[in-house]
Amino acid sequence: APSTDARDKFIAYWSVSENSSVAGTNTHTVNILKSQTNSNEIQINNFSGLSFAARAVVNNNIITIPYQQLGTVGFTQGTGTLTSATNISLNYTNTIGASPADPCSAIYTKQ
């Protein structure tokens, strides 16, 4: 039977072009895996190039990054949309250490 797991289309390595209000434009790679504990969540490794994973809830082509701590560096929350088979558009706000909140936009391109 064909897969009905909405997460399948997100599972890959993605090249990221991120525009941070604080740091400007940067590029990095993330690896998206299925959550081992929640059947509708994914794990975005190296989220925002910060070497920590973020968890996100998948609903069809929409991902929601609930407010959460990113390892020891800070906090994030945001949303994203799978805009094609090979692209995800995300918007999230990182709060790193004592810095002000940093709104970011990112385009993920499947490798």
Give the tags.
mainly beta; 111 residues; eight-stranded antiparallel beta barrel; 0% helix; single chain; 63% strand; globular
As a percent range, the share of helical residues equals under 10%
Q: Biggest β-sheet: count, sense, barrel?
A: 8 strands, antiparallel, barrel
Strand order, biggest sheet?
1-2-3-4-5-6-7-8
Average pLDDT, all residues: 96
Structural class: mainly beta
Radius of gyration: 13 Å
Gap from first CA to last CA: 27 Å
Give a quick summary of the entry:
The protein has no helices and eight strands. The protein has 111 residues and is mainly beta. Strands 1-2-3-4-5-6-7-8 form an eight-stranded antiparallel beta barrel.
Write the layout of secondary structure elements.
Blueprint: E1 12-20, E2 24-34, E3 41-45, E4 54-59, E5 62-70, E6 74-84, E7 87-96, E8 102-110
Antiparallel strand pairs: 1-2, 1-8, 2-3, 3-4, 4-5, 5-6, 6-7, 7-8
Characterization of the model:
The protein is mainly β and 111 residues long. Helix content is 0%, strand content 63%. The chain contains no helices and 8 strands. It has strands at residues 12-20, 24-34, 41-45, 54-59, 62-70, 74-84, 87-96, 102-110. The protein has an 8-stranded antiparallel β-barrel with strand order 1-2-3-4-5-6-7-8. β7 (87-96) and β8 (102-110) form a beta hairpin. It is globular, with a radius of gyration of 13 Å.
